[in-house]
Structure formats: C-alpha cells, structure tokens
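User: Sequence for MFS transporter below. Tokens please.
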Amino acid sequence: MTGTAQSTGRPGSVREAAGGLGALTLATFVAITTELVPVGLLPQISSDLEVTESIAGLLVTVYALMVAVLAIPLTLGTRRLPRKGLLLCTLVAYTVSNALVGIAPSFGLVAAGRAVGGIAHALFFSLSIGYASRLVLPQVTGRALALVTAGASAGLVLGVPLSTALGIAIGWRNGFLVLAAGCALATLLVALLLPPVSAADDARHPEHTRTDRRTRLGAVSAANTLTYLAQYTVYTYVSVILLATGLSETAVGPVLLGLGAVGLVGTAYAALSLDRNPRRGTLVVHAVMALALLALGLVFPSRVGVLVAAAVWSGAFGAMASVFQAAAIRTRGGSPDVIGALVNATANIGIGGGAALGALVLVGPGLGALPYAGAGLVAVSLVVIAVARRAFPAGIESDE
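Assistant: Structure tokens for MFS transporter:
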C-alpha cells in the first residue's frame, strides 16, 4: 500500500486513496451483481421453479425490501463498530446468499437465500458510501464516489450479463454458485487492500444549520427514490422486453453486456461533472433518461428501436448512483454512514417498489406500458430536482 491516505485512512487526494477506492470498487461490483443477477435469469428461474415471471421478479423485491427496512436501523446499531470488519462481514454474507440460492430446491428457500443477501446489502452500501467519502478530501468527493460507483456499472456491464450468459449455458443454479465463489475472492482481496477508517461520527454542525441540511437531504432522498422506482419498474423486466422484440434467449446476455457498457459513459460523465457543476449534470441525465424511456415505449416492439432507446436510457442511468451519493453527502445532513444508509434505503425502496409496480403493469396494461410508467416517474423526479435548488446546487458548498 502506498500514500498517506492509503496507509492511514486519513482523507487525501483520489490518487493517494487509490488502493482503498479500488478495493471498494471491487466490492461494489460483486454487491451489485448479487443484487441484480435474477434480472437476466428470470425466464429460467420462473420455468425451473414453476412460477410466473412476475412472481420470479419478486426475488428482486424481497432483496430490496430487506435493504429498505434494515439499512438505517443496522447502520445506527453498528455505528461504533470497526468499518472494515463490518464491510468484510457483508461480503461473507453475499457469498452465503448466492450459495444458498444455488442449492435451494424451492422458490421459498431461494427467496430466503435472497433475504440473506438483502440483509448484507442493507449495511454494505451504507458502509461503502461513507467509507469512500472518508478516504478523500471534500472537494473530490464526487470523483471518488464516481470511481466506486464504477464498480456498480461494471456489475451491470460484466457481472449481470456474464452471469446471465453463464446461467443460460450451465444452468442458473450453477451461475449463482460461480458468483458465490467470486464473492469469496472479493472478500479476500478487500481484506488485503482496504485501509481502516474511524467509525466516529464527523463533526456536528450548528443547530441553526441542521434543519436546513436535513431538509436538503430529504429532497435528495425523495428524488433518489423516484429515479430508482422509474428505473426498476422497467429494468427488472428488461429481459422480457428484449425477448418480446424477437431477440433470442442466447442473445439477451450479450445485449445486456452492451447496455451496461453504455452505462459506463454516464458514470464517466458523472465523474467529470459532479465536482464542477453538479446541478447541470443532474438535470441533464434525468432529462435524457426520461426522453429515452418515452422513446422506448413509442418504438416497442421494434427490435432496432428498442435497442437504440435502451442504450440511451442505460447511458443516462449510469450516472445516477454517483449523482445521488455525492448530492446526499454534500448536504451534510448527518454522518457519512447515516447518509449512506438513507441513500441505500431509498434506492432500494425504488428498486423493490419498481419490481412490484412493474409486475402490476405486466398483469394490467401489459409489457408495452412499462416504459411509459418509467418515463412518468423520472419526470416527477426531474421536477423535484428543479425545485430543490439548494439540495442540488450548481457549485460545491464550503463548510459553514
């Protein structure tokens, strides 16, 4: 390990914290892959377990529900424990979760295995967001969080599509077992590379500023919930949408790989904009996402049209995790870990709610209505962002 920030955990530049940030990026990769791997394997899971695709989609909801309910209580209950040790415990739990899903003989036990992963996830992103912000100086928080978020994008680019392709080739259960082995490897590497940081809360702000900061944090949390609700109303069933265009089952994995790769463009845009003019960047990616989902609905079921619209949609969403993590941390409405827990919980309310809402749309208006529902929700989020100017400022506020 090199550099002051890397060896001591004290805030430094992105370069000084590169080793720790790289370890967090790796951990985020396996975490997001574990969360979303059922998305690409819904047809196989529903067929093997003899449940409908809408019921199989609830595996995402169960996972997200655990996170939404437990993120804040678990973070508060463990706030004085060593951060690195807790992070390693979550990675061990991811390993156990995937192994249980891989060997479970029934849908109920598969759901139980997913619940174990959901409990891990309730702590993981709360820890990782706070961890990344503590490794670097405030003026480069956006860039640091974008780098760690690249692990989530890589989970979409490589993890989910490759596990989808692997699950189709060797069976979805074996795909989960391979992912369990990957989580175990990540646990070992994080133990070696990530420096420890203090579990102590950051300095408190004066009472007269606290209410304002919490109001800003509330606005960020509301927009975060809406954006993730929009995304997962549609994305949970993206494999079903792709198959409805006439795409073959074996082509779904490669297409998801391509869509995830486009998502890295959005992550790169976030890294460039969030330390310069975060408000403009936030408005741009939301407007692009809303228009892309609207276009997706208009062109469905045209295969070429769906692929083009989905690529633009994926590119825009690639920025969202960095956008909301950086905005929430910069409100300073609480300690980094509590803010991380709130971002994590509200995102997963959106993820679980989106999976459930998408299931209702599927059995009601039908598959073609999903993109319109998503576009409408993004538009509402865009309105919240436009109104809440202090929660999403043009510049980076200095400490008061």
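Residues 18-49 form the longest helix (32 residues).
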